[in-house]
Amino acid sequence: MLTPTQALKFANKVKALTATMPYDVKVALRNDALELAQNGFKGSELMNLWKDVGHQYARGNKELAILKGPIGEALTDISPELGNKFSKINNLYSKYYNIIKAMKPGIYTELEKQGKPLYLLKNLLFFNPRALASLGVYQGAKSLAREALINPKFQSLTKKLISSLNNYKYGTANLVLDRMNEIIKKDSPEIAEELENINFNELKKS
Asked: Would you tell me which of 48, 83, 119, 133 could form a disulfide with 75, CB atoms 3.0–4.6 Å apart?
């Protein structure tokens, strides 16, 4: 974890990197970067940072690539140990992002408008902190973010879930989500209880 002086130096470097971005995105990124530094670069805070990169720019691919290197370099300059940790977590996040970005836009849209349980699932998979906070499950979701980044079984099930949905195999998707929920229950029983109400076969009615 950075000292207060190091955290301030890091925040100033991020401030310089984001100077030309739109105001709301710039403020969000600076706040996220400072929280990231102060909390020891946990996976959930890193996901917050990258979600705010994508807030203005679709899913943020271009801006993610632009910022990742300079932020990593700035951090390494201040603290080589945390710079290395930042790099490792970024690699984990990139691996997970490659899984979830395979979801077809049409499926993504359907999950958005099909009621609270499916809306929760969509924002859980893409770790949208604002939506999760509005649903009252942000703290539980932060624990699940760690599973998404480091648990190969959870990642494999996520990949199978998205593949099933993309191919309209809703029965298979229901079975996969049941298996995912066994993991989710350990970190967040309240989220698992909400997800138990999901029946993907209802998507056929839309």
From this structure: 83
Q: Which residues of 7-43 are buried (b: 16+ CB within 10 A; e: fewer)?
A: bebbbebbeebbeebeeebbebbbebbbebbeeebbb
Average pLDDT of the segment spanning 150-174: 94
Q: Confidence class of residue 58 from pLDDT cuts 50, 70 and 90?
A: very low
* pTM (predicted TM-score): 0.70
Largest CA distance in the chain: 56
79: left (phi over 0), alpha (psi -120 to 50) or beta: beta
In the structure encoding, which two tokens stand for residue 174, read together?
A: 């229901």
Distances (CA, A) of 92 to 85, 137, 162: 11, 23, 19
- CB 59 within 8 Å of CB 157: no
Most confident of the ranges 56-60, 113-117, 129-133, 192-196: 192-196
Residue pair 171/196 in contact (Cβ under 8 Å)? The answer is: no
Q: Could you tell me if 52 and 28 are in contact, meaning their C-beta atoms sit under 8 angstroms apart? A: yes
Q: Between these two residues, 191 and 20, which has the higher pLDDT value?
A: 191
